[in-house]
Amino acid sequence: MKHPLTSLAAAGLALAMITPEPASAQSYQVDCAILLCLAGGWPASAPCAHARAVFIRRITPWPVEPPLQIWRCPMGASFDAPAPLSPMERLYDITFRAAPEISVPNATGPFVLAQADERADIDISGSAFDFVRSIRVYHVQFSQRENRDGECIISDATRLGSYGVQGDYHWQRSSAAAVPPASLLPRPAHCGWVSYRSVFVDWRDHEGNYGFEEVRY
What we know:
six-stranded antiparallel beta sheet; alpha+beta
C-alpha cells in the first residue's frame, strides 16, 4: 500500500496534467514541486520533469547549491478552506493552485559550495519527511598517482552536503571512499592513475526506492 504522501503527490500531479488550464513551468513554486515529486519517485509529468531539471541544475557547477531548498516552499501558509488542511494538502495547493515567483539557480559567479541555515517553516522531524534527509550531495575532487619511488600520492578534497532535521543544509569533510558505488568514480585496486571531479547526488523516495544523478566537470 502506498503511503498517503506518495499517493497525494501522484494524484496532485495527475490532476495538474488534466485540468483545463494546466500550470506552466513558471506558475508554481519549484521547491514545492521538487518536494512532492521526490517523495513520489519523480512521477512522469511536465511539472516533475521541470522540478527534476532544477534539482539537478542546482548541483551543476557553478555554484553547487542545495538541490532542494525547502525553506522556499511555504508549507505553513494558510488558505481559505472549509476544513483545516494538512501540511501536505497545503503543499499541493501551493504547488499547483497558487502562483508564487519561481526560484531558479544562479548560473553565474565564482565556484562555491552553498550552505543554508534556513529551515522548513513547519516541523518536518517526523518519519514522513525522512526522504528529505536522505538526500546526499558529494562534491568529488579526487586524484592519485604513483611517483618514481613507488609511493602513492593521493589528493582527496571530497565534501558531503546533507540536510539536517528541519531541512537546513550543510557541507562537511568526506572522502572518495564514502562516495556511493553508483558513482562512476574509478576505484582501482592499487595506486592506478585517477583524476576525477564530479557532483554526485543520491536520495530515496518516500517508499525507499533509490535514485541518483552525477554531473562531471
